[in-house]
Design a protein that fits this description.
Layout lengths: L1 H32 L6 H17 L4 H24 L7 H23 L22 H23 L1 H11 L1 H6 L4 H27 L7 H14 L4 H24 L8 H15 L14
Helix pairs in contact: 1-5, 1-8, 1-9, 1-10, 2-3, 2-4, 2-8, 3-8, 5-6, 5-8, 6-8, 9-10, 9-11
Length: 295
């Protein structure tokens, strides 16, 4: 029993690593434009197809990985410049409609270019079992890649001038402009970085779920759950929220098997219930900051 429990926790951490990456990308976009990007999952899926195509042409995994991150960054920055800059001051509903349109566009493009058949995606990690049967090597690799990427992003925002400027532009655009920060450029960089982070999530998870145009639909929902539970104004909290959702998802499904109840079939519903439950008691999320406005 204890071994099975530990196995579910470790598997949940592996899933949570992907949710954490998606949650981080969601929060980066939210801080830049104060809205959720509903096309984040489809952008990650499209980037994953780019990586698959490069490897299909014979390019080694990690080189294809780096090229895909660069291409994804350019796509994200391009979308901000060409699509969202002109509608920056438009109503929120206009932004939502554009996000939904981008979701459909990326999904249709992927299907038109690479068709809708399921494709196997390679893993760069060893295939030999490690730690007994508790966790697979690909799951360990996903966790390691996630933690390394999160460390790089933390150091970037904490110790580089560009990272500090991006934080200032996200937290207080007007004050940032007054001290010479080019807010629009920082917003574009944020979009590019969010697209690249989403690409990492897609590439890491594709081996487990297989590659097809709808592969990120459920994962995006869990990523939103992690971001909301952790706090949409706290990137670190969103990451912790992603890991928390991953572990909770697996433990709930395992408990359902123990009591012979098919909880695993309604895991998405449970994720939504979890979001509602947290927001009822902590509207800003578990690690979010409470904002007080004077009127």
């Amino acid at each position: 029993m204890l071994e099975h429990l530990l196995q579910q926790v470790l598997a949940g951490l592996a899933n949570g690593a992907i949710y954490a990456l998606v949650a981080l990308a969601v929060v980066m976009i939210y801080q830049a434009i104060d809205h959720f990007n509903f096309a984040q999952g489809e952008m990650a899926m499209f980037s994953t197809y780019i990586a698959w195509q490069l490897m299909d042409w014979g390019i080694p995994f990690w080189i294809a990985f780096l090229i895909t991150l660069a291409v994804s960054f350019v796509i994200g920055a391009f979308l901000e410049l060409v699509v969202f800059k002109p509608i920056h001051d438009a109503p929120v509903l206009s932004h939502i409609v554009v996000f939904i349109a981008l979701l459909a566009i990326f999904n249709s493009l992927a299907g038109a270019i690479w068709d809708y058949t399921i494709k196997a995606f390679p893993t760069p990690f060893p295939t030999e079992a490690i730690f007994g049967n508790l966790i697979g090597p690909h799951a360990v690799g996903m966790i390691v890649v996630t933690l390394v990427l999160l460390a790089i992003i933390y150091l970037f925002f904490r110790y580089t001038s560009v990272g500090l400027a991006m934080r200032a532009a996200a937290q207080n655009p007007e004050s940032a402009r007054l001290v010479g920060v080019r807010v629009r450029m920082m917003t574009g960089l944020g979009w590019g970085m969010a697209a690249a982070v989403g690409a990492v999530a897609g590439i890491m998870v594709a081996h487990a779920v297989f590659l097809e145009p709808n592969m990120m639909v459920g994962i995006l929902l869990y990523g939103f759950a992690g971001a909301i539970v952790g706090g949409v104004d706290n990137p670190g909290g969103a990451v912790l929220g992603g890991f928390l959702v991953g572990v909770l998802e697996n433990l709930v499904a395992w408990f359902g098997d123990v009591i012979d109840f098919p909880i695993g079939e309604i895991k998405l519903t449970i994720a939504l219930i979890f979001i509602v439950g947290v927001l009822m008691f902590r509207p800003t999320g578990l690690f979010g900051r409470r904002v007080v406005k004077r009127v």
